[in-house]
UniProtKB/TrEMBL annotation:
Record InterPro entries: AB_hydrolase_1, AB_hydrolase_fold, DNA-binding_regulatory, DUF829_TMEM53
Membrane-crossing segments per the record: none
Name of the molecule in the record: AB hydrolase-1 domain-containing protein
AB hydrolase-1 domain boundaries: 84-188
One Pfam match: Abhydrolase_1
Organism the protein comes from: Spiroplasma monobiae MQ-1
Length: 311
């Protein structure tokens, strides 16, 4: 296999954090937040999205487990609270999208923190691992908020790659000291290799053509040998029975999602039954990828509120 082709594919996967300087200079994150807010309002007509006041959001930096610089934004509730929501964005997205998509938690009395995963938004360039190293970044984010703000209680919400990251974290046995009450998984995927195949197929197209599977095998080898990310051994199915303790998860997906399959949420839900926690699953009949919130706004947030109240 041509090493140049394989390296090009890896560069394409990791090309989401380029040319961000112009976007983010002079507090450009506020402009992005405003655009996302307006987009949600235009789709839902839910004026409460504007209750999440952009002027009250602040930028902050912290370190990842491997000393990369990660950038986040936080919004403090108007009523003082030690309860926090950590919002996790999807592949090729950013902290601004997950912050605004979590707006209703402000109404429920939470502070909200969102951050850019490695090689996204304003955070440092680093290999994107579709949830494997991102799970460690999430742990660093939670630890940072606990130390910086004295947070006493956490809830997590993730979208697509962020949802997969939250699911991994829920199985990691690394969260007991943080008092995490629940997680919301919006449009997750189950298998990292499957989603990488979709990404490579969509971004590389004619470059790989009929040799996609061979290219992917070489990509996996590079991830393993050069970056020590073993996608074969990193098996979620095996992690679930090894999990000693977890927190309840709400799984939300759509049958019309063509990016990730609703069956992956069902798979997580069914396999986690052995863990003895009160998970909830809701599959909408309609709604694009991570768009059930705007397609079914009232029902979406009712599901979230009912789930939290039952935990």
């Amino acid at each position: 296999m041509n090493e140049l082709i394989v390296q090009k594919i890896i560069e394409m996967i990791n090309n989401v954090n380029r040319d961000n300087f112009e976007i983010y200079k002079n507090n450009g994150y506020r402009n992005l937040l405003s655009l996302y807010q307006q987009a949600i309002f235009d789709s839902t007509k839910d004026e409460s999205v504007f209750d999440l006041e952009i002027k009250n959001m602040n930028r902050i930096e912290f370190k990842s487990f491997d000393s990369k610089n990660l950038v986040g934004i936080y919004h403090l509730n108007s009523i003082k609270t030690n309860k926090w929501i950590i919002a996790c964005h999807g592949f090729s997205s950013s902290k601004e999208s997950s912050m605004v998509a979590s707006y209703y938690f402000d109404k429920m009395g939470y502070n909200i923190f969102s951050f850019d995963f490695r090689n996204h938004g304003e955070s440092d360039n680093a290999l994107i691992t579709m949830g494997i190293n991102e799970q460690k970044d999430l742990l660093c984010a939670i630890d940072f908020i606990k130390k910086e703000f004295g947070a006493k209680e956490f809830g997590l919400i993730g979208f697509s790659m962020g949802a997969h990251t939250v699911n991994r974290f829920a199985l990691s046995n690394n969260f007991q000291k943080y008092n995490i009450k629940f997680g919301v998984s919006d449009s997750t995927y189950f298998d990292t290799k499957v989603v990488l195949k979709k990404i490579v197929s969509s971004i590389a197209g004619p470059i790989v053509g009929n040799i996609l599977d061979k290219v992917l095998e070489e990509v996996y080898k590079v991830y393993n040998n050069k970056y020590k990310i073993n996608l074969d051994q990193d098996n979620i199915t095996l992690k679930i029975p090894l999990c000693d303790e977890t927190f309840p998860m709400l799984y939300i997906h759509s049958k019309k999602d063509v990016v990730t399959s609703f069956q992956d949420s069902e798979k997580f839900f069914n396999l986690r039954k052995i863990l003895g926690v009160k998970d909830t699953l809701h599959i909408f009949e309609t709604g694009e990828h991570i768009r059930t919130q705007v397609a079914h706004t009232q029902m979406y947030w009712k599901l979230v509120k009912d789930f939290i109240n039952k935990k």
